TrEMBL record:
Pfam families, per the entry: Peptidase_S11
Top-level taxonomy: Bacteria, Bacillati, Bacillota, Clostridia, Lachnospirales
Gene3D superfamilies: DD-peptidase/beta-lactamase superfamily
Protein name: D-alanyl-D-alanine carboxypeptidase
Family that this chain belongs to: Belongs to the peptidase S11 family.
A GO biological-process term: proteolysis
Organism of this sequence: Anaerosporobacter mobilis DSM 15930
Active-site residue numbers: 104 (acyl-ester intermediate), 107 (proton acceptor), 162
Length: 327
């Protein structure tokens, strides 16, 4: 899937985008500040030929702050969003501008920055830092210091199995350090209009200064879907990889997706095909999920649920949310 237009950024503090097809009958300018305490403000105009017309983005669903269609008791997560990405139409939205922790959904932005800035044929050498994550419960690919692995393979196992060690290895290879890579992540976020996000690492392990919103995740995920390699990876159920360790010996491993729809552990709603997505879980973030799905007419949808209280509840709510496609 290719999307024809990108958001045009005026500055890091001001993004102007159109509301066509989403929630307003008039043209509009949206001031979406990156200040932590700011709110979304709208300046509407009926003049389609005014000086701002050439600044408006196209093919984007913009959700005004007070237009939430939330309140359904079956959707109890902190933030929920469902967008018809073909028609740029909001189908359900609740608390989509609330600042929340993304957990491993962070990896979508890491993948996007990597695909835009790196050669996937590169060989990556795993560092001490990448191979020594000590946080209890952190998802790991089991990489060891000195391992040499192809970047495309590394990106696959990173997204499919959600290994945090792979995230640091990718960041260090692409930018020289994780700190430099997170700067690239934040620059990319602003460039696509996700100005209420701040990334402090490449993997999503908890950091108080690492946050986003459901709407920003929509923007980031939507941009990533323009990369065919990204779509191929998130649709992959399992991935076999061969790489070499520090002694030059071959290591063979297979990694399985964390997406329970692809695994077959969760049943997709009737008439809906889940293509792929990204999961995320930490204590502070709760259980999170962003999905790319299609209906029987091949229309495309992006759905986001943040901070559900359990994995079971997360998938129950996501299946319920996807049924809004036919309501």
């Amino acid at each position: 899937m290719r999307l024809n237009k990108k958001i045009k950024v005026i500055s890091s503090l001001l993004v102007l985008i159109s509301l066509t097809g989403c929630s307003s009958s008039s043209n509009a300018l949206m001031k979406y500040s990156n200040s932590d305490t700011s709110v979304v403000q709208y300046i509407t105009t009926n003049d389609t030929d005014d000086e701002y017309a050439n600044l408006l983005g196209e093919d984007l669903c913009v959700i005004p702050l007070k237009s939430d269609k939330g309140g359904d008791g079956n959707l109890a997560a902190e933030a929920t969003l469902l967008v018809n990405n073909t028609d740029n139409e909001m189908l359900y939205a609740e608390n989509v501008y609330e600042k929340l922790y993304p957990a491993s959904i962070t990896k979508v932005m890491t993948a996007l920055v990597t695909l835009k800035n790196a050669d996937l044929s590169d060989m990556v050498t795993v560092s001490y830092e990448a191979s020594h994550i000590t946080e209890v419960g952190a998802s790991l690919c089991g990489l060891k210091e000195g391992d040499k692995i192809n970047l495309k393979d590394l990106l696959n196992i990173f997204l499919i199995s959600s290994g945090n060690d792979a995230g640091i290895a990718i960041a260090e290879h692409v930018a020289g350090s994780e700190e430099a890579f997170t700067k690239m992540m934040n620059e990319e976020a602003k460039a696509i209009g996700a100005t209420h996000s701040n990334f402090a690492n490449s993997h999503g392990l908890h950091d108080e200064n690492h946050y986003t919103t459901a709407y920003d995740i929509y923007l980031i995920f939507r941009e990533a879907l323009q990369e065919p390699t990204f779509v191929d990876i998130i649709a992959t159920k399992s991935y076999k990889v061969t790489y070499s360790n520090s002694n030059g010996d071959k290591v063979d491993k297979e990694f399985s997706t964390t997406n329970l729809y692809l695994k077959g552990n969760e049943v997709m709603p009737d008439g809906i095909t889940v293509i792929g997505g990204k999961t995320g879980t930490t204590i502070k973030a709760g259980s999170c999920l962003v999905l790319y799905s299609k209906d029987k007419s091949d229309k495309e949808y992006i759905s986001v649920i943040l901070k559900s209280d359990s994995k079971t509840s997360l998938y129950s709510q996501m299946s319920y949310l996807l049924k809004f496609i036919y309501k």
